[in-house]
Amino acid sequence: MSFELENCPQPGEVWFIDLGMVAKQRPALVLAAQTDARLALASVVLITTKFENTPYEVTLPRVPWLQEQSYINAQSIQR
User: Fold this and answer.
1) Which of these, 2, 62, 69, lies nearest to 35 by C-alpha position?
2) At residue 5, what are phi and psi to the nearest 5 degrees?
3) pLDDT (tens digit, 9 = 90+) per residue, 36-63?
4) Helices (H), the chain
5) How many other CB atoms are there within 10 angstroms of residue 69's CB atom?
6) What are φ and ψ of residue 6, in 5° steps?
7) What mean pLDDT is predicted for residues 67-72?
8) Is 5 helix (H, G, I), strand (E, B) or coil?
9) Of 4, 37, 38, 50, which has the fewest beta carbons less than 10 angstroms from its beta carbon?
10) Strand ranges (E), 1-79
11) If you ran DSSP here, which 8-state letter would residue 61 be given?
12) What is the SS3 assignment for 7?
């Protein structure tokens, strides 16, 4: 995941990103972003509508821009 410094994600924001999986953009919650290094990096967890009932999933509150009940799976950390 790459981004320009003026568009730097901040922890707690949700960004739509393309990780190349099934050719679609996915919402992701930004956990951390580092912009002062040679390479700008962000750590995110994917937001999904699939609930597998594992101890690693967190139910998100309903928000208008997510059409369905959504969840975060802490095992999906991407960098």
Assistant:
1) 2
2) -60, -35
3) 766 677 888 989 999 999 999 999 999 8
4) none
5) 11
6) -70, -15
7) 92
8) helix
9) 38
10) 14-17, 26-34, 41-48, 57-59, 71-78
11) P
12) helix
- CB-CB neighbours of 57 under 10 Å: 17
Region 21-32: mean pLDDT is 81
Residue 56 has a pLDDT of 92
What tokens appear for 40 in the block? 């700008």
End-to-end Cα distance, the chain: 7
Joined together, the tokens standing for residue 50 give: 């699939």
Output the CA angle 72-13-7, nearest 5 degrees: 135
Find the length of the chain: 79
Q: What is the dihedral of CA 35, 27, 13, 63, to 10 degrees?
A: 180
